C-alpha cells in the first residue's frame, strides 16, 4: 500500500472511529434522555396515583361519615320508638277495655232497692275500682270535662244547649267519659256544650 492509500485508510479509520464514538455518545445521550423521560413519566404517574388515592380516600371518608350519620339516626329513631312503645304499648288493650269500663259505670249508676242487689252492686263497684286502678297504673286517666271550656282536642261535642248556669262554650254535661293514655287522647269525652 502506498503512503497515500495508507493515509486515506487511516483517515477513513479515524472518521469511522469518530463516527462510532459519535454514535456511542448519541446512544448514551438518548439513554440519558430516556431515563430522564422515564423518571418524569414515573413522577407524573406517581403524582396522578397520589391524586387518585387522595380522591379515593376522600370518597371513602365521605361514605364513612354518611354511614356513621345513618347509624346515629337509626339509633335515635330506635330509642324513640322503644320509648313510644313503652309509653303507648297498651293503647290497643285500653281501647278494648273502655267499653267494659263504660258498661261497669252504667251498671253502677242504676238505683237499687233491695239488700241483695246492693250487695251485688258493692261487688261490682269493687271490681270496677280494681279495673280503674289497673288502667291508672298503665297511665290511663279520665278526662275531666264537666264545667271546663270546650276543647276540640279532648272533647267531642254532640249537642249545644242553652244554659244560664254556664258561660258560653262550656261543657255542661258528659254523656260518655273520655280517656288519655300518658297525655295522648285515646277517646275524647262525648259532651253537651253551652251556647
UniProtKB/TrEMBL annotation:
- Which ranges of the sequence are coiled-coil? 36-77
- Subcellular location(s) of the protein: Cytoplasm
Q: Which domain of life is it from?
A: Bacteria
SUPFAM superfamilies the UniProt entry points to: Coiled-coil domain of nucleotide exchange factor GrpE, Head domain of nucleotide exchange factor GrpE
NCBIfam families given in the database record:
PRK14140.1
Oligomeric form and interacting partners = Homodimer.
The similarity comment for this entry is: Belongs to the GrpE family.
Protein's UniProt name? Protein GrpE
Q: Which organism is it from?
A: Scopulibacillus darangshiensis
